[in-house]
Amino acid sequence: MESYIELIIQANQKKFTDVERVIAQYFLDGNKELGIQELAKKLSVSNSSITRFCKKIGLANYKELIYLYKYSSKGAKKQTDSSISYVNLNYSLLLNDIIEKLDKDEVKKAALMIDAGRIIHYWGTGYNAFCGEDFQFKFSRLGKIVNVIKDEHSIAMMAHGVQQGDLVVVSSISGDNEAVQEAVKIVSEKNAKVIVITANEKSPYQDFSDAFCLTSSMGKKDMGGISPQIPVLTVIDILYTEILAMYHEDTIKSWIKSEVILKGK
């Protein structure tokens, strides 16, 4: 397993400048820890570049980086390799990435559409289908009728049955299934509202969506044992919480009423 510092650097490497990549590689190669001035001289970079690198990976300063680097490389490896520490760090990195990518305005639009709609069609295959069950559980409690479709053949068929005014939530981490894309195009032409949840910022689904909720997909190496549906489940939680925040009093009353009905009281 990678150390804490390796995971943090790898999770942020897409943001690095060329100079920051040089600094990152120094630590990824396991080189000797140096003072900031010594390191700057060795790598032919400025002190400020090293400080910016530290902040870019979520650390306060170079002193914190060196402390973490020493902790990772001197006898504490067993502790950092424990399953609890490893998964905890990966969750933190993943959640930070999701929050950074998710657009607040798109969340607001999506929440308003969910709140306004009564019949919601949730489309998702594979791991995304599991997320549909969570979506259905949450929003059914708010009085919504949620129809979860779990395979692309059924999605293609159901697209023709969607009516104007319906809401379709498409969950796809890859965001590039041609059959689903065609289905999304069909429902958008019927003037049905479409929310897309995906990790693909260039997804062709975006052209037919009314709200585009971009989440994270850190890749198998970076995920470190985290269930791949977590990025979508996190967006669902955020949308649900957004609605609770917008209409707190009415929502809580509806929630309590549904709980009473479910319990048969």
Description:
By secondary structure, this protein is α/β, with parallel strands linked by helices. The protein folds into 2 domains: 4-78, Arc Repressor Mutant, subunit A (Orthogonal Bundle); 101-263, Glucose-6-phosphate isomerase like protein, domain 1 (Rossmann fold, 3-Layer(aba) Sandwich). Helix content is 59%, strand content 9%. It has helices at 4-12, 18-28, 36-43, 47-56, 62-73, 77-80, 83-101, 104-116, 127-140, 152-158, 178-189, 219-223, 230-246, 248-263; strands spanning 119-123, 145-149, 167-171, 193-198, 211-214.
Features:
Rossmann fold; five-stranded parallel β-sheet; 265 residues; alpha/beta; Arc Repressor Mutant, subunit A; 9% strand
Compute the number of strand runs: 5
The percent of residues in helical segments reads 55-70%
Trace the largest sheet across and list its strands: 2-1-3-4-5
Average pLDDT for all residues:
85
Number of domains: 2
Distance between the termini: 51 Å
**Share in β-strands:** 5-15%
Point out poorly predicted stretches: 75-80
Strand and helix order: HHHHHHHHEHEHEHEEHHH
Helix-strand category: alpha/beta
CATH topology of the largest domain: Rossmann fold
Shape: elongated
CATH superfamily membership of the largest domain? Glucose-6-phosphate isomerase like protein, domain 1
- The helix tally amounts to 14
Name of the top-level CATH class of the largest domain: Alpha Beta
**Rg from Cα:** 23 Å
CATH-derived architecture of the largest domain:
3-Layer(aba) Sandwich
- Please describe the biggest sheet, giving its number of strands, its sense, and whether it closes into a barrel: 5 strands, parallel
InterPro entries: Homeodomain-like_sf, HTH_RpiR, RpiR-like, RpiR-like_SIS, SIS_dom, SIS_dom_sf, WH-like_DNA-bd_sf
Protein name: DNA-binding protein
Keywords: DNA-binding, Transcription, Transcription regulation
Organism: Enterococcus ureasiticus
